[in-house]
Amino acid sequence: MTHGSNDGEVLEKEARLPETAVLRSYWTANLRYLAVLLGVWFVVSFGCGILFVDELNAVRIGGFKLGFWFAQQGSIYVFVALIFVYVWLMNRLDRKHGLDEG
What we know:
The protein is about 80% helix and about 5% strand. By secondary structure, it is mostly helical. The longest helix is centred in the first third of the chain and has 48 residues, at about 5-50. The mean pLDDT is about 85.
């Protein structure tokens, strides 16, 4: 009775365990980044544009009320900035886990 093929499969699975742990760590960090960045975007777009608009409208920038500015343009600028932050964070995460392309 031979177990050659089963032994090979077991060894192959054991060899993949560290790789699986690295990928799990990578994915967990990626989800953490996404949750934080989407939370920031929610606060800026919904909070500053709708919930806190009356308080923010007391401040004027360039003749426009700050709450109006956040509702019309500010949340879009913040979203674009968050995209660049996400790219920077993911490149750093790729290098940390040895998954970078360069």
